[in-house]
């Protein structure tokens, strides 16, 4: 089973804040997102301490059977992760804190915000929040409109309780206790948790890495999805070749290949696992469906019919339908020649007939 990676949102947003990264991370991890109490789809039961918010994450991990998990969180979501890394180091495999801090300004400001929201709801916060969350350019995007809608829809008591949790949060003295491999990401134009707050985290957490994202405010992962995803990918463990080989070719095939390995072929088996599967099939730049289309075409071009049968099965596993495989082979008839495609159709037909 894949490693679990839990993604925590920021105050006033919902789990949709992770939309730009979740699917890509989901290719290698079992990605689980959650909503803060009273936000998004979550029940409105208010939780007013960081320990309480962190307890919900642990309960979620328990429900998934995840003894240990990777955790990445934005702002308040990041603070929940840091709190867990301090108080439950045995549960946190790795930690990423995006646009977050060891302390979020003066507690009094959070108590005032909580009181305002309890009296008038979250609507009065929306305009100012967009100015903190996005650069002027970013505030005009559909993502900004989506986040504004999430904030306006948040339950006032749930939101206010999160403000109380922020008022009581100060992890500065505890940062050296964090042992999980940690990545800190800062938006260079973030007025809420500016790069200085990120440096305080990175200086305090042993071995932490720090990445600053240019042209991004507080919701840096929405404004600059690519650089944030790249930073997260560099931080999270890459899947090893054997894991990908098994995912694409299936356990039965790989177990047979391993069982048939001899002293003569062992180095070659090791080479393809590390090189083809560990170096190329794991690359993020193309999805596995596309890689299957390319591989089928290359095998037809080279006349590698035995390998083609294996990759027809792999293509199905990677999500291609028989009709799509047919389309790939039709296209090879144009570029590789009709006789090559003819032989490939015969192999594919036999293979598909057996699956
Ligand atoms: O509310 C804001 O604008 C920024 C913020 C602080 C903590 C959090 O999660 O978001």
TrEMBL record:
Matching entries from Pfam families are given as: Abhydrolase_1, CMD
The protein's superkingdom reads Bacteria
Stretches of the chain forming a coiled coil according to its record: none
Q: Where is the Carboxymuconolactone decarboxylase-like domain?
A: 267-349
Record-level GO BP terms? beta-ketoadipate pathway
Q: Name one GO molecular function term.
A: peroxiredoxin activity
Q: Where is the AB hydrolase-1 domain?
A: 11-225
Cite the PANTHER family for this sequence: 4-CARBOXYMUCONOLACTONE DECARBOXYLASE FAMILY PROTEIN (PTHR33570), CARBOXYMUCONOLACTONE DECARBOXYLASE-LIKE DOMAIN-CONTAINING PROTEIN (PTHR33570:SF2)
Q: What is this protein called?
A: 3-oxoadipate enol-lactonase
Q: What is the lineage of its organism?
A: Bacteria, Bacillati, Actinomycetota, Actinomycetes, Streptosporangiales
């Amino acid at each position: 089973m894949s490693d679990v990676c839990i993604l925590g949102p920021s105050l006033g947003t919902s789990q949709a804040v992770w939309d730009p990264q979740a699917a890509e991370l989901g290719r290698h991890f079992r990605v689980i997102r959650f909503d803060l109490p009273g936000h998004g789809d979550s029940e409105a039961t208010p939780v007013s301490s960081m320990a309480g918010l962190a307890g919900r994450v642990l309960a979620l991990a328990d429900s998934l059977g995840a003894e240990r998990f990777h955790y990445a969180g934005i702002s308040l979501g990041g603070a929940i992760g840091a709190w867990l890394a301090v108080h439950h180091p045995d549960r946190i495999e790795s930690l990423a804190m995006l646009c977050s801090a060891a302390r979020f300004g003066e507690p009094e400001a959070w108590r005032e915000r909580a009181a305002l929201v309890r009296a008038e709801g979250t609507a009065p916060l929306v305009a100012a929040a967009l100015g903190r969350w996005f650069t002027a350019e970013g505030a005009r995007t559909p993502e900004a409109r989506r986040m504004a809608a999430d904030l306006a829809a948040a339950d006032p008591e749930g939101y206010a309780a999160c403000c109380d949790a922020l008022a009581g949060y100060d992890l500065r003295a505890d940062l050296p206790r964090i042992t999980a491999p940690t990545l800190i990401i800062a938006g260079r134009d973030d007025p809420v948790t500016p790069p200085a707050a990120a440096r305080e985290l990175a200086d305090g957490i042993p071995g932490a890495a720090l990445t600053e994202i240019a042209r991004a405010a507080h919701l840096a992962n929405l404004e600059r999805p690519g650089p944030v995803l790249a930073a997260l990918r560099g931080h999270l463990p890459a899947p090893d070749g054997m894991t990908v080989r098994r995912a694409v070719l299936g356990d039965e095939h790989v177990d047979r290949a391993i069982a048939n390995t001899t002293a003569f072929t062992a180095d070659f088996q090791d080479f393809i696992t590390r090189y083809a599967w560990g170096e190329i099939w794991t690359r993020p730049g193309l999805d596995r469906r596309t890689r299957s289309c390319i591989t089928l075409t290359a095998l037809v071009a080279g006349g590698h019919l035995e390998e083609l049968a294996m990759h027809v099965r792999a293509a199905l596993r990677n999500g291609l339908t028989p009709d799509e495989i047919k389309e790939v082979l039709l296209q090879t008839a144009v570029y590789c020649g009709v006789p090559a495609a003819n032989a490939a159709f015969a192999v594919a037909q036999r293979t598909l007939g057996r699956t």
